[in-house]
Amino acid sequence: MLLRGLRLSDDLKTRLEQAQKLRGYRSVNAFILEAIEEKLQRTDAVESVSESEARIAADFSRIV
Fold it and tell me: What's the pTM?
């Protein structure tokens, strides 16, 4: 597995630690990994919607 070093401000580090404990993650790393996965899924969903909208617009322009 590829490892990345992150430089975090003290404030962000504190917020991550609080979120990890509050939400029941076993570690800050587990919280960060899930956050990255969620962001990637949302990005994929937005791209999918954009592709669908483009297809609908193209179909509509052929009808008009």
Answer: 0.64
Nearest to 38 by CA among 18, 19, 21: 19
Residue 59 confidence (pLDDT) above 80: no
AA identity, residue 55: R
Give per-residue burial for 27-54: e unless 16+ CB within 10 Å, then b: ebeebbeeeeeeeeeeeeeeeeeeeeee
Q: Is residue 17 a contact partner of residue 28, using CB atoms and an 8 Å limit?
A: yes
DSSP string, 6-53: ----HHHHHHHHHHHHHHT-S-HHHHHHHHHHHHHHHHHHHHHHHHHH
